[in-house]
Request: fold
Amino acid sequence: MNEKEIILKIQELLDDIRPFLNMDGGDIEFIKYEEGYLYVKLTGACAMCGFQDITLKDNIEAYLKEDIKELKGVINVSL
Reply:
């Protein structure tokens, strides 16, 4: 996949994940995809959750990597 296709696929998969985060009062925002890394911002309840690292790595990153082999990792940024 080229970078544009990867970004579209990421956004599609984030839309699949979003309802689960929304149920707990949180959300995820796409920031950028660069050099194999996805930068996101966890918002709402997810921003303050003590389990955000586990949610990010074990759930979101693992889910995205199933479909996007080029993805090296997901990084939460605070803006």
